[in-house]
Amino acid sequence: MILQAPLTLTELEQDSLTELANIGVSRAAANLRIMVGSEVLLSVPSVQIVTREQAAALIGDRKIDRLIAVHQAFEGALAGRALLIFPETQSLELVRAITGGGLPLEDIIGLEQEALAETGNIILNGCLATIANMLEQTLKISLPEILSGSGSEIFALSGAPAGEAIVLFLYINFSVKNRDIGGYIAVLMDLPSLTTLKMLLGRLIVQMTQSNRSDAH
């Protein structure tokens, strides 16, 4: 069953949020590029307002059975969860890229959890902090947590309550050039945060419109 969202973003609000996400993820990708020493390719951010079940299906809809995710909760004027997700089979390749590829396999396996948590922390923090700053907000972001399982299992483990509640689901695909590493960043926000987000986006749009007018004179 598809629920009609009680609150939607206007086309202008959606465009503004997409642009904010683009800037945030671009900065996060720049951090990842430094860590792995390769170019990071990004898709255009996708913003959807869906039910929790649909969001869980989107997380799992990658034709891959096992996923690994770095999960961080954030709170403030906006609250929700951010996830850095990729196929479990690529986690060691990511750690190998970060450590420079010179370590034996047993050392890479030993470093896997710590390296993944640190990578997720840098990428997700960079993305969320950039978006929050542009909306003139501050966020309290939790320590990173490593989750593994199917898309729906990761969604459940991340603490997102089950049921048909509406969420804002923002996600961006990424891949590392010349390496078998790819995944996506997902941000989930509940309805109260969506209400606040609409207000903040509206304020940002007014500020940008006024700035553009003053620049024109």
Can you offer a commentary on this structure?
Strands 1, 2, 3, 4, 5, 6, 7 and 8 form an eight-stranded antiparallel β-sheet that branches. The chain is built from six helices and eight strands, in the order αββαββααββαββα. The chain has one domain (11-211): 3-Layer(aba) Sandwich (Chemotaxis protein chec), CATH 3.40.1550. It has 217 residues and is an alpha+beta fold. It has helices at 11-36, 52-60, 91-98, 105-134, 151-157, 191-216, and strands spanning 40-42, 46-51, 67-76, 80-87, 139-141, 145-149, 166-176, 181-190.
Round the mean pLDDT to the nearest integer and report it. Answer: 83
- The CATH class designation is Alpha Beta
Write out the CATH superfamily name: CheC-like
Q: Roughly how much helix do the residues carry, as a percent range? A: 40-55%
**What's the main sheet like?**
8 strands, antiparallel
Structural class from helices and strands? alpha+beta
Q: H/E order of the elements? A: HEEHEEHHEEHEEH
CATH architecture: 3-Layer(aba) Sandwich
How many structural domains can be distinguished in the coordinates?
1
Number of helices: 6
Our Rg estimate from Cα atoms comes to 18 Å
Please tally the β strands and state the result: 8
